[in-house]
Amino acid sequence: MFAQMIREGAQNLTRNVKQVDALNVFPVPDGDTGTNMNLSFTSGVNEMNKYESTDITEVTKALSKGLLMGARGNSGVILSQLFRGFSKSIEGTKEIDAKQFANALQQGVDTAYKAVMKPVEGTILTVSKDAAKMAQKMSQKVDDITYLMQEVLTEAKASLKRTPDLLPILKQVGVVDSGGQGLVYVYEGMLRALKGETFIENTVHEEVYELKENKEEHVRDEVSSMMASGVLSVEDIEYGYCTEFMIRLDKQKAPQFNEFQFRERINRYGDSLLVISDDELVKVHIHAEDLSKVMELAQYFGGLTNIKIENMREQFLAIKEGQVVSEQDQPMKDFGIITVSMGDGIAEIFKSLGADVVIAGGQTMNPSTEDFVKAIKQVQAEKIIILPNNSNIILAAEQSAELVDQEVAVVPTKNVPQGMSALLSYNPAASLEENKDSMTRAKDQVKSGQVTFAVRDTQIDEVSINKGDFMGIFDGKIVYASNEIKATTTSLLDKMIDEDSEIITLIYGEDVKEEQAKEIEDYITAQYPDVDVEVHNGQQPLYSYLIAVE
After folding, report:
1. For residues 438 and 72, is the Cβ–Cβ distance under 8 A?
2. Where would I find the H helices in 49-123?
3. Which pTM does this prediction carry?
4. How many angstroms separate the CA atoms of 428 and 439, rounded?
5. What angle is formed at CA 209 by the lines to CA 205 and CA 213, rounded to 5 degrees?
6. Helices 56-70 & 2-15, crossing angle to 10 degrees?
7. 243 — phi, psi (to 5°)?
8. How confident is the model over 143-166, as pLDDT tens digits?
9. Which residues neighbour 143 within 8 Å (Cβ) at sequence distance 6 or greater?
10. CB neighbours of residue 404 within 10 Å
């Protein structure tokens, strides 16, 4: 029953994502609270649906794990903490009564408040707190969870209406808190399930950060990538084992896990590295040869789980000999995503975010309409989303839509940061048109910066530029130029970062050394201690740095 409550809560949130997004005005009107909460909650439901258990402890543990790994944005993180505390409260029980349910809601609130450095009232935190307080009060009077949940929802709605009195910006704009509204939608769905008003089909959608579970699909992706990179024989494969695992961090062994340093160390043992972490788990994907060194390093930080090792040399031979089912034999899936990138590192990032096909291209090497048509056929999906990531590629992408049988939506992303932002907002439960709308909005919310060099002398927008200078470009406008790459990059960052900035993504190109990128990261950390910094080796040509500020 609890699992059904969660599924219906997720469905109700999905149905109302647009309404939640429209309310998002704090701290800035970026319109992504509903999307973040929806994707976060969907991740939790996906993990929960993998288990068939009547033990509520097991159900909530799975839900909490999925939420934790899929949490996006402040609202998504808070949502994950609410259910994380809920799960910990009932640990060891197989079923719960109204009082235990109320206590679990309260522990969820306590956990969420502790997770936020500076809790702000008038947000999802307040709504959850007031609702949990009502649950505590009612649990002393009744032992009917359906009745208790009805009172919880009633108080949550009342608390939501009070949020403008606590947060001036809400009153100024004339709306209620978006995160609180999202939580109300979740509670509405949970109550609906308790009343038996709906039946939710137990459908699992692949969450974008999830490492692929389907072996044949994973094999094809890995080997196809190798072939595209020029691997023509087994002898060409330097790192033969596709290795995936998770580290459950041991706070005694590694009290302060540093993702950047870990990525730097483990990258010595292979390539195609992806690392995703939170405060408890680290998910790793790497192509390696000496697995003992990889595992030895990983075990230093905690216990290993979900270990998967595939021999890519055998897979390569199987693909070439036709032993794996061909693409044409695969059933058509619902959605496929095609994106364009320059640089192997950026391609890997897009794949890790859920792209099915990454077309090599960008500035000076625009893919043709035929390239897109081939990619669309390769995906084998009924509905296609294309992210061109360059203004000169949009028309070719749109034209390809007229030459295929599938439904195609082109999200007009003009650079890589916009493409990544759009892809993060993709929702497999939404329609093609809804996805196009939300992804278009998402790409418009990210600040994009590039550092490249000038090929001639000129003066643009009062900026004097000499041939060979490094130019800092902010949302298509040249804002700084000098003959020093570090000075140009830091000056560009200073113009892009403001008090509302939360996340800086720095992607360095093939002409930049790792030490140089580390210097820029150190500069950001020192000058802007409140922002999170992510650094990736994009290996892109022409552009020394691609920068996204959110």
Report:
1. no
2. 56-70, 73-89, 98-115
3. 0.44
4. 12
5. 60
6. 30
7. -120, 130
8. 999 999 999 999 999 999 999 999
9. 97, 98, 99
10. 13
